[in-house]
Design brief:
With 279 residues, the protein is of the alpha/beta class. The chain contains eight helices and eight strands, in the order αββαβαβααβαββαβα. Bound molecules: 2-acetamido-2-deoxy-beta-D-glucopyranose (5 copies). The site of one 2-acetamido-2-deoxy-beta-D-glucopyranose has 2 residues, from β6.
Length: 279
Amino acid sequence: MWRVMHMWFLLFTICCSEAKTINSDHPQLPCIFIFGDSLSDSGNNNRLRTTGKTNYPPYGIDFPSGQPTGRFTNGRTTVDFIAEHLGFKGFIPPFSDANTGVNISKGINYASGGAGIRTETGRMLTLYDNGARKVALFGLGFIGCTIAEISMYGASRSGCVDRINNAVLLFNEKLVSLVDELNGSFSDAKFTYLNTTAITPSQGFKVLNASCCQVNRLSGLCLANSIPCSNKSEYFFWDSFHPTEAVNVITGGRAYNAQEPSYAHPLDISQLASLSLPN
Ligand SMILES: *[C@@H]1O[C@H](CO)[C@@H](O)[C@H](O)[C@H]1NC(C)=O
Ligand SMILES: *[C@@H]1O[C@H](CO)[C@@H](O)[C@H](O)[C@H]1NC(C)=O
Ligand SMILES: *[C@@H]1O[C@H](CO)[C@@H](O)[C@H](O)[C@H]1NC(C)=O
Ligand SMILES: *[C@@H]1O[C@H](CO)[C@@H](O)[C@H](O)[C@H]1NC(C)=O
Ligand SMILES: *[C@@H]1O[C@H](CO)[C@@H](O)[C@H](O)[C@H]1NC(C)=O
């Protein structure tokens, strides 16, 4: 059950009734709404009845506040970096904070390690009805290359669990078709696909087969208050599932500004943000 929640899957909705001019004081879009799993969770799981919580050290030790927030990494997530590129100051608040008086004028992060796709679809349709017109859909990453899956199923000759990665590729192909279909059927909106397997850096990290933090072998999450590796930027994996901030900064940068044609189909986030749509 827990493993299913950990899919490398992230939906990212950009609401845009009227894009503001791009300058240093204003974000490129009025607000963004984020859907997804633990890779983009910014604290929603903290208040859910779930064992998948990460609101304890060493999670968050490299977060600007130096405190755990419920993010499943040592610092910021990929969507944190994307929001930063879009010009948002501060972080998009998690849904779980929405009734605590926090200012939600720049959007809400619904992503949760405990989220189900069905509730997310409902929220997205509501957002569409309320004017959300720019949607970025992220494909799955190579789940079969996570430490957790490899230790559970054993590596194929490729070094990853091929069976799982083949399913990932199949899913992503269908997602690309869906994006094309949605673009055809909603002429007043724009949908784009971000190729997670392509934008996630596969090089530049010395250690790919071990996590930086010491993990609980059942949950794959970091042991509370354990001392993580000293050189976090050399590690791809923070815990058995989730990448380090060093990976997320690259993934977020490439999603925002795709230097390779394979990274995005048809638009990267910066192009999506600057697009003018009919009213
Ligand atoms: C929320 O933030 C926006 C933009 O910074 C501001 O215009 C608005 O007044 C704020 N709302 C509240 C209730 O503080
Ligand atoms: C999106 O759909 C429109 C038709 O609504 C079509 O003209 C256009 O070529 C499509 N663009 C992409 C990139 O799929
Ligand atoms: C994603 O990128 C890879 C290259 O890294 C490419 O082989 C693949 O076709 C791309 N997938 C899609 C659905 O565009
Ligand atoms: C990781 O791979 C290296 C060789 O590349 C090996 O020496 C090391 O034992 C492996 N670590 C684990 C935890 O499998
Ligand atoms: C950490 O890793 C980076 C990148 O490999 C390297 O430049 C740096 O010297 C390392 N620092 C330490 C303290 O090992």
